Structure formats: structure tokens, C-alpha cells
């Protein structure tokens, strides 16, 4: 029997944002269902179903604001009230830290970016019979849905989509598939395109005209699936961005925190986690520094020794950091972690690892004995894994801030402060009171 229907009582929301029903033994993940609801559901795969009717709705259920929600793969939780969404994400982070072995302080601070503030998005490009579509994947499919509406993307980027579709339709270098990553820098939209065939000279002229007409300082391009550094196709003005007064020339496709509100919430939480009184000579080691989102605000409080694995980001950070208190090292921290002994004398370690977490680097953090470890995480599961090593090494959790900058997604970001009291010959070195 294809796609059998059943009635399910939903126990809770799972970490992917699906409702989880356990009444049949093995968990069934039910798309579009919320904790506490009873729904009619249709099986769509092993252990997976989609809600077809809500029989008893949760008080937190709302009408999704976007008419594309049930098709588009971009958002997963628009049917959940935003305050309830933030409280669910706060719970995910709290559970991760408890699972790691910590007592979680009461009153976790939590902030959420408003709709239409997302300033970076990776979109898919498809040529169809009626021209090119720039959009997101249909949920669970390779098909691409045109973003005729989007409640997360910042308007300066959303308004570019229609002209971008029109211009890509004219490119010979786009046969069938490609992608468009857009970043809103201080200087304006920065676009990185990929396509499945080389661009011809006329394509380059067309893209340059588009850039001029639409106020796009830079467009870069690479062959779809290629590994070469992207080629700048047109640069009508310098692509620049600034962090705490340091002006950078970021590489194309650079990592930016998803929203400006998210960036500020993260840097504020990191700075608040530093000891209140820091001597000018204090040294903070920063791991996974990117182009310096956190490094430059930090450098106003301490000397920063920054490590990053992407050579282009390192080049950008080095140039912008010249004359500031930021020392930059290129290092793959998976292959060659900073060793515990090399943190000696540091007042704090700040780390902001990728989604997979800190891997081999986490073990060195745990045995470093550095009194303050400030962990910026975009993945509660990886946080739990890494934080367990800190708990086992005697670190205590002092503060947590949850940042929801991927509104309506299941992603939860956080900044946690772990501290350790170090025994010295003169007695315990206690973190100064705030
Ligand atoms: C979440 S981003 C944070 C960047 C920066 N802290 C920011 O807020 O803009 C993670 C960073 O880790 C870097 N990274 C990923 N894997 C790495 C590795 N194995 N070694 C060093 N850096 C790595 C990425 O290039 C990226 O810049």
C-alpha cells in the first residue's frame, strides 16, 4: 500500500524541526507537526511522515507567513509562533549543555533576528523552458522553486532576484544548472555565480551591465563543481566591509554571520564573557577567526592571536589587522590543532568552529587549563560533544546566550562561557568578579 495514512500524537519537536511521535515504538518524524498535537499523517519514507490534517492544534501553531512555505525547502518552522521557536531553540542549547554534563544557569539570554534581515543566501539556479529560476530547492527534491516571495531575505537582496533571473537567462555559459551566493556587504551586494559551462565574452559584458544597472560592486564566477578560486567577472567598485572600525576587502563568497543583528548579539555575548578587568597586555587566542567578525571587537579589549584555515580569509584578516592588535595564523585546526601547551598565558580562548564542531582541537582546549573558554556554536549536537570534554576536564558553565539568526530554521546558535579556576603557588587564581 503506497503512502499509508495514520493518526499520530506528537511528543515533541525533533532537532530537525519535525514533530516526533513515539507511540508506535520507533520514532516517526512528522513534518509540519508540533509537540502536543494530534495529526493525521501520511508516510513519506522510513520513519518519516508529513502531517495532512491537524486534529488538535498546539497553542503555539500559527499560519505560516509565506505562501511558499509548504513547498520551499528554506524554512521548516513557519507554523510555529516566533517566541515559541526561540524558546524551543533555547531548550535545544540547554539540553546539549546538560547532556555534556553541565548545570545550566537559570535565565538563558536569548535573541532572535527579525524577518527579512538575512544578508547571505546560497541559491540554486536552473534553466527551464521559460527561462532561468533563481531560488531554493523544493523540500526533499532537486527541483528549484522561484522565490516570488521570501520572508527571511533582506529586501536589498530579494529585489535582485528578478533582474538576476533575467540576466542569467541570457548567458550562454549557463546551460542547465548553476548557483548564486549573495552576500550583503557594507559596499552593496556581492555575488558569486557558478554555471555548468565556461562564460563567453558576451556573457561577461552582460554581467557587467547588470552590475552597473543594479548597483552590484562585484560579481565573481566559477565553473559549477570546480575547485578553482572564483574569477572576478566585474568589479565596478571596491567590495568592502567593516568590523569595529576595521575596513576589509573580503574575498568573494566570504563567511558573514547571517544577519547584522546576529553578528552584534554574538560579539556582544563574547565581549560580555571576557573578564571585566583585563590588563592591556592580556592575550586572547581566537580559533576559526574567518575574516575577523569577532577578532576586531576583541582587539579593542585584548591582544588577539587569531587562527583560521581559509587562506583567502587569512589574507583579508592580515591586511585589515595590520597596525591593530591582531596577529593572524593560517592553520588547518583539524590536522594541526593548537596544542594545549601553546595556549599558556592566554586569558581566554574564543572559538567559533564550523557546523561539525572543533574535532581534534576540542581535546587540546580541554587540557589547556586556560581560565576562560568562550565557545560560539552553530550546532547544539557538536557543542554537546565538544563541551563534554570541557566538563570532564573540570570546566564550569557560567553563562549561555542563544542567538536565533536563522529564523524559521531548526538552527540554533549560542555563545557559552566555560571557566576553570587554576591553582597557582599563591593559591587559586579565581576569575575576578564582574
Ligand atoms: C562559523 S565560521 C566563523 C568565522 C568567524 N568567526 C566569523 O564570525 O565570521 C567558521 C570558520 O572556520 C573556518 N574553518 C573551517 N574549518 C577549519 C579548519 N579545519 N581549520 C581552521 N579553520 C577552519 C572557516 O573557514 C570559517 O572561517
Question: Which SSEs are present, and which pair or pack?
Answer:
Elements: E1 5-9, E2 12-13, E3 19-21, E4 28-31, E5 38-45, E6 48-56, H1 82-99, E7 109-112, E8 120-128, E9 131-137, E10 144-146, H2 155-158, H3 161-169, E11 177-185, E12 188-195, H4 201-214, E13 218-223, E14 231-235, E15 241-243, E16 246-248, H5 260-273, E17 283-287, H6 295-299, E18 303-308, H7 311-321, E19 326-330, E20 348-351, H8 360-366, E21 372-377, H9 380-392, E22 396-404, E23 413-419, E24 422-424, E25 427-429
Parallel strand pairs: 4-6, 7-22, 12-13, 17-18, 17-20, 18-19, 20-21
Antiparallel strand pairs: 1-5, 2-3, 3-4, 5-6, 8-9, 8-11, 9-10, 11-12, 13-14, 15-16, 21-23, 22-23, 24-25
Helix pairs in contact: 1-9, 3-4, 8-9
The protein binds S-adenosylmethionine (SAM).
Descriptive report:
The active site is at 378 (nucleophile). Belongs to the class I-like SAM-binding methyltransferase superfamily. RNA M5U methyltransferase family. Keywords: 4Fe-4S, Iron, Iron-sulfur, Metal-binding, Methyltransferase, S-adenosyl-L-methionine, Transferase. This is Class I SAM-dependent RNA methyltransferase. S-adenosyl-L-methionine binds at residues 257, 288, 308, 352. With 434 residues, the chain is α/β, with parallel strands linked by helices. It has 3 domains: 5-61, Nucleic acid-binding proteins (OB fold (Dihydrolipoamide Acetyltransferase, E2P)), CATH 2.40.50.140; 83-114 and 256-429, Rossmann fold (3-Layer(aba) Sandwich), CATH 3.40.50.150; 120-244, OB fold (Dihydrolipoamide Acetyltransferase, E2P) (Beta Barrel), CATH 2.40.50. It has 9 helices and 25 strands. It has helices at 82-99, 155-158, 161-169, 201-214, 260-273, 295-299, 311-321, 360-366, 380-392, and strands spanning 5-9, 12-13, 19-21, 28-31, 38-45, 48-56, 109-112, 120-128, 131-137, 144-146, 177-185, 188-195, 218-223, 231-235, 241-243, 246-248, 283-287, 303-308, 326-330, 348-351, 372-377, 396-404, 413-419, 422-424, 427-429. An 8-stranded mixed sheet has the order 7-22-23-21-20-17-18-19, sandwiched between helices. Strand 22 (396-404) and strand 23 (413-419) form a beta hairpin. Helix 1 packs parallel to helix 9, helix 3 packs antiparallel against helix 4 (201-214) and helix 8 packs parallel to helix 9. The protein starts with a strand and ends in a 5-residue tail after the last strand. The model is unreliable at 427-434 (pLDDT under 50). S-adenosylmethionine is lined by residues 255, 257, 288-290, 293-294, 308-310, 313, 332-334, 352, 354, 378.
Amino acid at each position: 500500500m503506497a503512502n499509508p495514512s495514520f493518526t499520530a500524537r506528537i511528543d515533541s519537536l525533533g532537532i530537525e524541526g519535525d514533530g516526533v511521535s513515539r507511540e508506535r515504538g520507533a520514532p516517526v518524524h512528522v513534518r509540519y507537526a508540533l509537540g502536543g498535537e494530534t495529526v493525521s499523517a501520511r508516510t513519506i519514507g522510513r520513519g518519516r511522515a508529513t502531517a495532512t490534517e491537524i486534529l488538535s492544534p498546539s497553542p503555539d501553531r500559527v499560519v505560516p507567513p509565506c505562501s511558499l512555505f509548504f513547498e520551499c525547502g528554506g524554512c521548516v518552522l513557519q507554523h510555529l509562533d516566533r517566541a515559541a521557536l526561540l524558546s524551543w531553540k533555547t531548550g535545544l542549547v540547554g539540553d546539549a549543555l546538560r547532556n555534556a554534563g553541565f548545570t545550566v544557569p537559570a535565565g538563558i539570554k536569548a535573541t532572535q533576528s527579525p524577518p527579512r534581515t538575512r544578508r547571505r543566501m546560497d541559491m540554486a539556479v536552473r534553466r527551464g523552458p521559460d527561462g532561468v529560476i533563481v531560488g531554493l530547492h523544493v523540500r526533499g527534491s532537486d527541483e528549484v522553486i522561484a522565490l516570488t516571495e521570501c520572508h527571511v531575505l533582506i529586501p536589498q537582496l530579494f529585489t535582485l532576484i528578478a533582474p538576476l533571473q533575467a540576466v542569467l537567462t541570457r548567458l550562454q555559459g549557463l546551460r542547465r544548472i548553476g548557483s548564486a551566493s549573495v552576500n550583503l556587504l557594507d559596499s552593496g551586494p556581492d555575488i558569486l555565480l557558478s554555471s555548468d559551462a565556461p562564460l563567453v565574452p558576451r556573457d561577461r559584458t552582460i554581467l557587467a551591465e547588470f552590475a552597473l544597472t543594479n548597483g552590484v560592486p562585484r560579481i565573481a564566477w566559477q565553473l559549477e563543481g570546480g575547485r578553482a578560486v572564483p574569477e572576478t567577472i566585474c568589479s565596478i567598485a571596491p567590495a568592502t566591509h567593516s568590523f569595529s572600525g576595521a575596513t576589509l576587502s573580503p574575498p568573494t563568497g566570504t563567511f558573514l554571520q547571517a544577519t547584522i543583528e546576529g553578528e552584534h548579539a554574538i560579539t556582544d555575548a563574547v565581549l560580555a564573557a571576557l573578564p571585566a578587568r583585563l590588563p592591556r597586555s592580556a592575550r586572547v587566542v581566537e580559533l576559526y577567526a574567518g575574516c575577523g567578525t569577532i577578532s576586531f571587537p576583541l582587539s579593542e579589549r585584548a591582544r588577539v592571536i587569531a587562527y583560521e584555515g581559509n587562506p583567502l580569509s587569512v589574507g583579508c584578516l592580515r591586511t585589515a589587522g595590520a597596525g591593530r592588535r591582531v596577529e593572524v595564523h593560517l592553520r588547518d585546526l583539524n590536522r594541526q590543532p593548537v596544542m594545549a601547551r601553546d595556549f599558556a598565558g592566554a586569558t581566554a580562548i574564543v572559538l567559533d568552529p564550523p557546523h561539525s564542531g572543533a574535532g581534534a582541537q576540542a581535546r587540546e582546549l580541554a587540557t589547556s587549563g586556560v581560565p576562560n573558554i568562550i565557545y560560539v556554536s552553530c550546532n547544539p549536537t557538536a557543542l554537546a560533544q565538544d563541551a563534554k570534554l570541557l566538563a570532564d576536564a573540570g570546566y564550569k558553565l557560567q553563562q549561555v546566550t542563544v542567538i536565533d539568526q536563522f529564523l524559521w530554521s531548526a538552527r540554533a546558535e549560542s555563545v557559552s562561557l566555560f571557566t576553570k579556576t587554576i591553582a597557582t603557588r599563591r593559591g587559586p587564581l579565581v576569575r575576578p568578579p564582574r
